[in-house]
Request: fold
Amino acid sequence: MNLTLLFDVFLIAALLLVSWRLLGASDLFQATVLFISFGLFLSLAWIRLQAPDIALAEAAVGAGLAGVLLLGTFKGLEPEEDREGENLSSEACRLDPISPCPGRAHLLLAFTFVGSMTALLLLAVLDLPAEGDGLTLLVFQSLDRSGVEHPVTAVLLNFRFYDTWLELGVLVAAALSILCVRNRLDLRELRPSKVPDVMLRRLVMGLTPIMILVVVYLLWLGDHAPGGAFQAGVVLAAMLILLWFSGHASITSLSRILWLFCLIAGFAMMLLAAVITASWPEMRPLEFAEEWSGAIILAIEVAATLSIGVVLSSLAILSLGAVED
Amino acid sequence: MEKFYLGVACFLLATMIVGLVRVFVGPDQEDRLVAVQLFGTTGVAILLLLAEAFDASSVRNAALLFTLLAVLAVVAFVRSPGSLGEREE
Amino acid sequence: MEILSGTLCLLGAFFFMAGTVGLIRFPDSLSRIHALTKADNLGLGFIVLALVVTSQSLTVAFKLILIWLLALVASSSICFFLARKLIHRG
Reply:
């Protein structure tokens, strides 16, 4: 049997197995751990699908950050461990023991919906041309005018500028909405208490310079290889969260103005580029002049990295820190 | 040589699947996290082998990220409020 | 050269398998953590060594060794934290 086929079969089996157990997990912590393992296998799958950019993002978000965010969210939901008298969880068929089990009508509706979506997807996939490169040819034709050498970065930050811009807007909206949920104005009350844990402090002290290097490396890589602002931003967020865990104030020590500035930096930078190109006499909106596009994209990527790092770490610290009140 | 690396990667993937048993069963929460940690390291090995087999150097960066981010998930678990009462003083 | 790389690779795979078997079969959480460290250090080390031996350039070799060292630091710390939490819980 072909070795790559064997690898793919194992991978698909692992993904199906993990997701099956995930949906039937008996408590939220086990679901979180299964979700992290799912992220690891999925990252391998992205490599096999020849999408190293997505594999990098999945490795960073799925393996690390999603686990932290889910742990922080579930701590507020999970019933305490010492409530031994409650036997609800042994009879519940869902993760939260209070709501009733789904009846036959629910299941029928769910199966119909899932079945029709799967059928539609299959039809769409079968409809694709058998020999097609998709949009690859178009992208490579315009690549030398885009300011970068890596096609994915060119698409994200030049050809499909709007999409990335609005995604950064979604991140800002998420940060603001969790502020509302946690009833806070900023992070300043969430300073970590003094941590007497020497091992953790030493470990984070050693890892932080390495993580800074990795952030800069990924940012620089985005120009000509898989990498870029999002992956660098996630590593930055991981570094800030680790610093917070080890007792360092990290982003909770920022004043409100500075913190908000970091949150919106990426979105604002892209907005600035849009406004300038729309109102400058000879330019057309969002069309960068060839000799400037490399520099503009780099500036936007730096701002976006900062934004993504601060937003994601704020989300984590807000969910984790608020439960300790 | 590439085929050999790919074969070893398949074998490592099989050990990962076997290790899933511990994630499903493992009585303690720590057991499950230890199993996930093993997945992380095995995943790094698989990624490095795939990078050599398919001649894709960007895959090594994914291995780097696996290593770094695995620390984060475990630190978050260990430092959650349930365990704050047991810090060494 | 290729035979050396292949042998080292097989050694690494053996240690990974030993680590997984230990994870499944050892009776106690702490001993499972012990099994894990063998896989991390030696298994990954041998595979990295195998890849370094046949690597095309010096930068790739350095990068591989750096990844291995980082994995050592990361996984030892992780196992320490998990084991300490287990012991403190009694």
